[in-house]
Design goal:
three-stranded antiparallel β-sheet, five-stranded antiparallel β-sheet, 141 residues, flat, single chain, Immunoglobulin-like, alpha+beta, 8 strands
Length: 141
Amino acid sequence: MKKLISIVVITILLFSIIVPTYAEELEPPVDDPIFEEFQGMRTVTASLEISGSIATCHSKLTGKSSYSYFLTMSLQRQNGSSWSTVISWTGSGTGINGIDIIKTKSGLSSGTYRCKVYVSVYDSNDQFIESTTVYSRSSSC
C-alpha cells in the first residue's frame, strides 16, 4: 500500500513539473501586452505620469503611409468601479509620422487616474478603416 501511494505521489509531482513547462512552450511570446496588429497603424501607446497634482498624458501613434489618423486623448479619474473624463484633447495626423501628443493637467485632486486614447483610421478616400482604444497604466496622486 505504501509503495502504491509513493508511486502516485511521484507521478503527480512529475506531471506538475513537466506539464507547465510543456504548456509554456506552446504559448506565443508577448513583448508588449498593449500592442495589437492593425491594418492602418503600426503602434499606439498611452502613458501617464503624475507629479504632485500635475498629470502628463502622452500618446504616440506610428502609422502607415496614405492613412489619416484622428485621436482623442482623455485624462480619466476613477470613481468606484467606473472612470469619468476630467479633460480631453484631440489631434490628427497622416502617414508614417502619425501623431505624438503630450498634454498636462494641473490642479488634480487626490485619486487614481489613467489616460484613455481612442484612435480612428481612414484611407486616402476618407473611408473608415479601423479604430482602437488604448489605456495607460493607472497612477495615483
